[in-house]
Amino acid sequence: MLLLLQLLYPVLSLSLAPLFSSGLACHANAYSFLDQEFLTADPPPPAAAGLCQQPFTPTPQHPVPGRKPLFINETINFHERHVNGSSGGQYRRSSCPAVNTLANRGFINRSGRDITADELIQAFIKVFNFGIDNDDRAQHVVNCPAAPTRNDRELGENVNINVTLFDSLLGFSKDGETLSFEDLAEHHHLRHNQSKAENPKFRFGNRDALCSLAQYSNLVGTIGRTGKHGLFTLYIEDAKTFFLEEDLPATYERRELPFYTPEGAAYLDRMSQHIGFTIERPFPPNDADGRDVEPEVANYEKGH
What we know:
Blueprint: H1 2-12, E1 67-69, H2 86-89, H3 97-104, H4 117-128, H5 163-170, E2 178-179, H6 181-198, H7 206-223, E3 225-227, E4 230-235, H8 236-245, E5 253-255, H9 261-275, H10 299-302
Antiparallel strand pairs: 1-5, 2-4, 3-4
Helix pairs in contact: 6-7, 6-9, 7-9
């Protein structure tokens, strides 16, 4: 979640100060991100009411968490799409389709301005059941290098979607209907090599790799649904709605189990290992020295 806050700060006018009044104290590891350089060192006050996530409680009739329909009051949370800078600059949007969806639906300020961290966190919990421990420990000013559908910030405009990159993403589907973690890993690897060739300031340490791959794992963790690849299968039709319309897919159902960091980490490791590298955690002290932790030739390209 904190990853999203830092990614979106410049374009959503987020106030990070109220972050400490959020319900993060509901979790034992709630303040694991306090060592990040851009946050103040002030101690967090008690949690605000109403932001604690309820864990999934299995019953004999419902032993395994799945998804349930999300009730949306269409008179209040109707969809109205805006792009960054539209209406003479009145509307601001981010490089994250999930946050833009929340704004287009009115779960946060539709203008994309003056949104507090508490408001954003609560909206992510309400709509996506995104675990508030899920900071991914990767902080970038606007977006990560080798993002799935956005240009690197060093290469120019990087807030609005690059439709060519999005079409490329869909092209990695093996069946034309869904995208597996392996499909996503292979698209990421293409983006890594593209950025390395095009971006003169390219670097790809462990933090960068985690940030880039997290955009794929978060996508599956939030809008994935039951299908041929298991409980969290990403369907192309859902990805089109999410990225192009910046709206919830028509078949969207909210996950019952919050999307916590351990689940996201498992997805990250599955993708990185398919390529042929492992993200080192914790990040080494010299992680930003210009290194590239990802090989240019992936294991699957070698026939491994």
